[in-house]
Amino acid sequence: MLPIVGLTVGFISTLIGLTTSAMYDGHSMLRVTPQTKRQEDHLRDLGKHQGVSFIGGDPLVGDHSHVITSPQVLDFVLESLKKFETEHLLTNPDVGRSIRSQKVRTRMNGDISWDAYYDLDSINQYLSVQSVGHPDLVTLTTIGKSFEVRDLFLLKINKGSTTKPIIWIDSNIHAREWISSAVGLYLIDQLLNSPDIQIQAYLDDFNFHILPMANPDGFVFSDLTDRFWRKTRSNTSATAINGCRGVDPNRNFDAYWLENDGGSKDPCDLYFAGDAVFTELECIAIAQYLDSILANLIAYISLHSWGQNVLIPTGRDSTQIPEYNEYIRIANLAAAAHQIPHGMVYTTGSVFDVWHPAPGTSMDWAYLNFPSAKIHLTYEFRDKGQYTVLLPADQILPQCEEFMAGIKVIFDELK
């Protein structure tokens, strides 16, 4: 059951007076790996100190976590980690410099390349230019509005019949995961402009519905204000009370919501799942649109970063879905193909087994509600933790190339 979208939306803008790079000038990123419960508890205590923040959720025994420290507390943090004998590695000595090096560009002519990240207006202009340039193939529409009243642009590629099986692909549902939308745009470019006969043949077999920017408000905030912002920018009753904003949209879907200690009830947490399911306009819009194409949906694919994974349902627990063997077979074939262009290794498995409990995801919701689709997948792109979401721009094209190598395998399996 989908909720009804309200007619009015509140809007509050927040300014903090610093650019996102200046916020992190001189800050260091450390990868820490607790091996005991004592070390895990110590890291959680460290995270309460001013100038210390975990960017990937709370640390867990046996898992890599990434912490950002201000220059004022770096020595204290390093001494503390040494005292508790916690495995750690300095992966980035100046986060602010890395943010500036990503070269966010603005181009209003719709011409983009694959050696830089782009702001939201440039991305939307690119979609518009592709629509105008391919009127026989492309329909550019909006499936709804974000909390801050930005369009959620969907690009549909239909060659001939509009009743062919539909492959849905979304990206950037998490604001800071810029590489995901870059890959989504590259896929659009390949489908529309590549001379590759194999790629063009897919247009005879499938229709493609691609949502390159699933969280525009959060993306803009991550560009202009805080590069590590993950959530939406909504201002719910809970967030208003606690002085925090936003919900993790990939914990807000009606799929095992908040089960098995997955997600968070804390409005200030990275993984805040919302006051209830489907509080976020962006999630509602995606769900309602997918519901409208139920009869033709053959694949649901969601693009994320980081970790280099091809993930299948579910994020609830370790119980294997009935289709587990077939899903893993396809994921393994794709992972092998992803490795060919640049040697990058992708891990396959369920979200729970590879990551951790993650209920309320869009993939699990699609799996539960659209069982007739042949595959439901979540991608985690580069890398395995050196750069996290700050993937350098010179890795955009290699990431795109290795994605195309594997996604072709998936498309072939769907025929």
Kindly describe this structure.
By secondary structure, the chain is of the alpha/beta class. The chain is 35% helix and 17% strand. It contains 14 helices and twelve strands. It has helices at residues 20-23, 37-46, 74-83, 95-101, 120-133, 178-193, 197-205, 216-224, 237-242, 281-292, 324-342, 351-354, 362-369, 396-414; strands spanning 28-33, 52-54, 65-69, 87-92, 138-145, 151-157, 166-171, 207-211, 297-305, 309-312, 347-350, 375-381. It has an eight-stranded mixed beta sheet, sandwiched between helices. Strands 2-3-1-4 form a four-stranded antiparallel beta sheet, with helices on one face. Helix 6 (178-193) crosses helix 14 (396-414) and helix 11 runs antiparallel to helix 14. It is globular, with a radius of gyration of 21 Å. The chain starts with 19 loop residues before the first helix and ends with a helix. Mean pLDDT is 91; it is low at 1-17.
Summarize, please.
The chain is α/β, with parallel strands linked by helices and 415 residues long. It contains 14 helices and 12 strands.
Topology readout:
Blueprint: H1 20-23, E1 28-33, H2 37-46, E2 52-54, E3 65-69, H3 74-83, E4 87-92, H4 95-101, H5 120-133, E5 138-145, E6 151-157, E7 166-171, H6 178-193, H7 197-205, E8 207-211, H8 216-224, H9 237-242, H10 281-292, E9 297-305, E10 309-312, H11 324-342, E11 347-350, H12 351-354, H13 362-369, E12 375-381, H14 396-414
Parallel strand pairs: 7-8, 7-9, 9-12, 10-11
Antiparallel strand pairs: 1-3, 1-4, 2-3, 5-6, 6-8, 10-12
Strand order of the main beta sheet, please?
5-6-8-7-9-12-10-11
Total beta strands:
12
Shape: globular
Mean pLDDT equals 91
Low-confidence stretches: 1-17
How many distinct helices? 14
Q: List the helices and strands in order.
A: HEHEEHEHHEEEHHEHHHEEHEHHEH
Share in β-strands: 15-25%
Largest sheet: number of strands, sense, barrel closure: 8 strands, mixed
Radius of gyration: 21 Å
Instruction: Please identify the structural class as seen in this structure.
Output: alpha/beta
- What separation lies between the terminal Cα atoms? 31 Å
Instruction: State the helical fraction.
Output: 25-40%
